[in-house]
Amino acid sequence: MKTKHGFVMGIAVLVLLIAVGISFAEGSVTAIQSNDDIHNLHTKATTGVWATVIFQFGNQEVLSATVLLPPTNTTGIKATELACQNLSLNLHYTWSAYGAFVDTIGWDTNQWPGAYWHLLVWNNDSYQWELSSVGASSINLKNGDVIAWIYTEDYPSTYSPMLLPGMVPGHYTAWPAYRGNINNTGYVHAQVLGRDLIWQYKGQYSWGFSATPAVGYGMIFAADGSAIYALTSSGTEIWNNSAGASVTSSPAITDKYVVIGNSTGYLVAFYKNNGTIAWKYKVSNNSWGVSSSPVTDVYDGKNIAFIGTYETSAPWGYFYAINMSNGAVIWNITLNSGVYFGTPAIYKGKIYIPLAGRYNTSTWSFDPPYGLICVDESNGTLVWNFTTTSPVKYSPAVEDNTVYLTSGNTIFALNATSGALKWNITLEGTLASPAVHSGVIYVGSSINSTAGVVYSVSTNGTVLWNSTVSGPVQSGVVIANDTILFSTNSANGTVYCYYLNGTLAWKYTPTPSGYILATPVISDSTVLIASNSGYIYAIGNNATMPIINGVNVSNAYVNKYIKVFVNATQVYQALLYYKNITGTEWHCVYMNYTGTGYSGYIPPQSTPGNVDYYVVLVDTSGNTRASPLYTAQVVSLVPEFSALYLVAVMAIAMIVVATKRKL
Fold first, then answer.
1. What pLDDT is attached to residue 22?
2. What is the 3-state secondary structure (H, E, C) of 30-68?
3. What pTM, to 2 d.p., does this model score?
4. String of b and e for 366-375 (b: at least 16 CB within 10 Å)?
5. Measured between alpha carbons, how far is 73 from 119 in angstroms, rounded to an integer?
6. What phi, psi does 407 have (nearest 5°)?
7. To the nearest whole number, what is the mean pLDDT of the chain?
């Protein structure tokens, strides 16, 4: 009997120790109290401080640089100086008793009242951009911190910026509109030198994708003839909505909305985080819907979406300025000609609208008038008109007070202020949308169904080089640092990457093959290719992208922190993105380096349900990789299996055993 009692006592003690261990294990998570425990960086000690600085200009072009600050000066102004040096940007600031005051970055100088440079910091407590409460010289940065400068206007009542940066920690590229920015220059500060397939996404439309995706705020937005889709940067679908179905109109994004012209003639604004419709407005009576892509701008205290249409009868075309906050028309004009594929460019308070002509339903072509008109951004008043002899179907681009447009086989360079012709040059084939950066123009052409040419042209109209490719180039060229990207719209559509001197870097033909009318764009460290095969392909360089060996999550219980662990080699930044059960906003927390990987914690959830999450790794060269989207199922602790209950049961059992022994 004593042996039996001893055995029972031993089992009781063992279970008690296990229960206490469970209790301690749970306590090790719930003991995390401070934001320093959860959100601090996350990397081995280095000499100095690594920080990332983001610049978003008035034309919505976004640049970023990761810099190493000396241990003796980790201020925001030092980080800004080093980032501007890295990006070859002009920087001007003055000192006063209040510290450094920045008035010029790059080509944008403060205009008060109006747009000026705002300093924002990424807040790891609220997981969002916030206006800095102190100047750049008063901020001391820690390893991995991210700050942003954005050139925009204020909300009149709050003095907060009307637009937030299109980049967020871990996602340092943005392509917010069809041609990359509202000047339509087709330039992005990024580069991808690999052609490995990283992921692919299949849409719903049998004829695939023809519209160019947009990238920003860590998300990808794309549309086919069935729906508009929101994806993570790793290609996992977040939401889709059939009200955004489009054939050629591409989305444009702001910090709150994604807006697109759809196949039923509406301009529709969706909340970007969940895909619900914020508002829509009927802009076209054309039975084929809207083919031109919208562009958005902050102007005169309003966030405005601009969109042009073509009609199949008089008055042939309209142009609208619509308030993004409520979908109300601010102004609209009758064009007497149509806007086809071309997207308007915006430059210094003027809008440049391409006119394809009057659509002829008998010939399926456009009749005159053709050309480009310049209107005032505030009210649509005509400033000047430039007439061409062929349709202007593609998007004009503006740089250094010069407008570049294509019509037929000719490039025209116009004075942006007066509309006066500076020069023109005739090339081979029908020319698509031009791209321009640092005084050089890049444009593709269509010779026939099996051949095209890409050209590099100086801003005085001299051809620098050209190269023939195996298919018509009907998408716009993209300039990415020291390379250009473009695609061919043929049965075996191919994406080409050339160095700026005309040397081929690589080319890639997706499988399954298809026509590629959409422009290639860059999302983090991958090139996105939207194809008529029905897929969006992301290609990159596996050799340079960070490696994620696995993502593990702890048991997820109500009112408990959820631990996420990433098996990964040492990189600069590791970030955990998640959405709360009851919310639609993405939140971001830094992950801590543990020696074998990175750990991060999703804050306690108050109710059972699903938490979506993914991780992003970024190295010091800016190479980025995101994991797939995962879901953690949060459940309530079952009382009968809780450690406290086990302790109570075992305690009673021990008392019973002890009592029997006495008997």
1. 41
2. HCCCCHHHHHCCCCCCCCCEEEEEEEECCCCCEEEEEEE
3. 0.90
4. beebbbbbbb
5. 18
6. -145, 115
7. 89
